[in-house]
Amino acid sequence: MIDAAQIAADLATAERERKQLSPFTDTYPDLDLATAYDAQWAGVRAKLDAGDRLVGAKLGLTSRAKQRVMNVDDPLYGWVTSSMIASYGEPLDLSRFIHPRVEPEIAFLIGRDIPAPATVTSVLAATESIFAAIDVLDSRYADFRFKLPDVAADNASAGLFLLGPRAVKPSDVDDVKLIGCVLRVDGDVVATAAGAASMGHPAAAVAWLVNQLAKRDQKLEPGMLVFSGGLTEPVPMKPGMSVTAELDGLGAVEVYTTQ
Question: Which among 103, 111, 57 has a CA at the least distance from the CA of 227?
Answer without folding.
Answer: 57
